[in-house]
Amino acid sequence: MKQRILIVEDEPAIVDNIQYALETEGFETICFSEGKNALECLDKEAIDLIVLDIGLPDISGFELCKDIRKKTNTPIIFLTARTEEVDRIVGLEIGADDYVTKPFSPRELTARIRAVLRRTAPSNENSHEQGIFYIDESRRRITYRGKPVDLSRYEFNILKTFIQRPGHVFSRDRLMDMAWEEPEASLDRTVDAHIKNIRAKLKNIDPDTDPILTHRGVGYSLRDDL
Ligand code: CA
């Protein structure tokens, strides 16, 4: 069955471009230029991934993303025209999975879509698990107690850093170096926001354990006694 991509974008030329590229690659597409219609569509249609423009005529993509997250965890890739928006995407707890900066090539977007779909796909195979965490590097996926954790790019990088050295205390600066391509572009507190997200996602899988320790004024570590 074809995977179905919901495109929410108000510039017809961009929509045409994306739609053509995705359908050539074997995806099915549904397109809306307004957020309201896209949100209604999610109630009726099975969607595998959402491509979401930030500058929409009726609602900001950020707001729409929050509304979508109240309904579903369907992966979201933002399209952004302005680099200053990137800081908001990675810094706030909006719940997007990735972003692409305009202008982009359809090939780049398609590659990102495939990567996010791989990362968020439910796992059926048996993972050769060691310990309670397992890193599947080729799919950029981490499983926790046998269940895949649905992580954004930065959350994945942070959690992977922890898993590779359990018990080691990482400062916020160090985590930023490990997780961000351009650490100087981000603020310290964004690390805290990502840790908060990771904790919430791990808690969904095991409500009784918090595997991440906070070391006040120093940083974070992964418990090594689990
Ligand atoms: Ca727009």
Characteristic key phrases:
226 residues; alpha/beta; 5-stranded parallel sheet; 8 helices; elongated; binds calcium ion
How would you describe this protein?
The protein has helices at 12-24, 35-44, 61-71, 83-91, 106-120, 153-164, 172-179, 188-205, and strands at residues 4-8, 28-32, 49-53, 76-80, 98-101, 133-136, 141-144, 147-149, 170-171, 212-215, 219-222. 28% of the residues are buried. It has a five-stranded parallel sheet. A three-stranded antiparallel sheet has the order 6-7-8. A three-stranded antiparallel sheet has the order 9-11-10. β6 and β7 (141-144) form a beta hairpin. By secondary structure, it is α/β, with parallel strands linked by helices. It is elongated, with a radius of gyration of 18 Å. The termini are far apart. The structure holds calcium ion.
Helices and strands in order:
Blueprint: E1 4-8, H1 12-24, E2 28-32, H2 35-44, E3 49-53, H3 61-71, E4 76-80, H4 83-91, E5 98-101, H5 106-120, E6 133-136, E7 141-144, E8 147-149, H6 153-164, E9 170-171, H7 172-179, H8 188-205, E10 212-215, E11 219-222
Helix pairs in contact: 1-5, 2-3, 6-7, 6-8
The structure holds calcium ion.
Calcium ion binds next to loops.
